[in-house]
Amino acid sequence: MKIAIIGAGNIGSLLGALLTDAGQDVTLVELRQDIVHAIGAEGVRIDMSDGRTLQTPVSITGDAGSIGTVDLVILAVKANATRDAIAGARGLIGDDTWVLSVQNGAGNVEAIAEVLGSESHVIGGVFWSVVTPLGPNHLSWVVGTGGLKIGPASGVWARKWKL
User: Fold this and answer.
1) Which strand (E) or helix (H) includes residue 45?
2) How many CA atoms lie within 13 A of 74 on its CB side?
3) What is the reported pLDDT for 74?
4) Sheet holding 98-101, edge to edge
5) What are the residue ranges of helices labelled H in 64-119?
6) CATH number of the domain enclosing 83
7) What backbone torsions phi and psi does residue 134 show, to the nearest 5 degrees?
8) Are strands 138-141 and 131-135 parallel, antiparallel or unpaired?
């Protein structure tokens, strides 16, 4: 599956590294050049509470248009950046692309649907975990604290995964 994650903060980087490590084709999209440079040069390092360390090379760019159409866009930006982020990601979205919001706050799914059109494939999501930034590409993660609930924009929850 070809995945673009918009936002390489704590949640975006964690998901990007875990999905890449699981064999998915992931590219992070981030505007902050210090993060793009650090992840591009060294990948994402995750120090886990169980003593393991995951150091994963993750593809990253500052230009969403350089990726092409993907199967899944995961939106992991702050809620106040939702409209601009999804508008900037239009080039990633084809007829069969799904858009998953893993953002905090209400109204994100509706904002995405307004920008893309109500016929778009938008999935609501709730992600939670204990993740602490230690650097632009370095995280501390309390293993077992994470989870992801997803469902259609109608609000009916379809699936729950524990990380």
Assistant:
1) strand 44-48
2) 26
3) 97
4) 59-61, 25-29, 2-6, 72-75, 98-101, 121-128, 147-152, 159-162
5) 82-88, 108-116
6) 3.40.50.720
7) -110, -10
8) antiparallel
Find the angle CA(85)-CA(41)-CA(11) to the nearest 5 degrees: 40
Predicted model pTM: 0.92
Classify strands 147-152 and 159-162 as parallel, antiparallel or unpaired. Answer: antiparallel
Can you tell me which residue has the tokens 């995280």? 139
Quote the domain boundaries for residue 134: 2-162
**What's the sign of the alpha-carbon dihedral 63, 11, 96, 152?**
negative
pLDDT in tens, 112-145: 989 998 767 898 888 889 999 999 999 999 998 8
Number of domains in the chain: 1
